[in-house]
Amino acid sequence: MTEKVAIGEAIKRARKRLKKTADEVAAEMNVSRSRVYQWEAQEYVFPKNLPRLSATLKISMRRLKALNRQPRV
Q: Right CATH number for 7-67 from 3.30.230.10, 1.10.260.40, 3.30.1330.200, 3.30.1780.10?
């Protein structure tokens, strides 16, 4: 059975699998390092960021969308 993880954990695992630092991911995506760390700590990432995350971290859009949970109000 596949373990269900939050999107932030999937982002962190993918970054480490690719042996990239948060600085490297941030530079590729034209965002700050702190933004990368924020995504890694979240259960939700704004959908506009998913295509770039998918390409940079080699995670399918389908998987990212499935892991992306809407924030609770």
A: 1.10.260.40
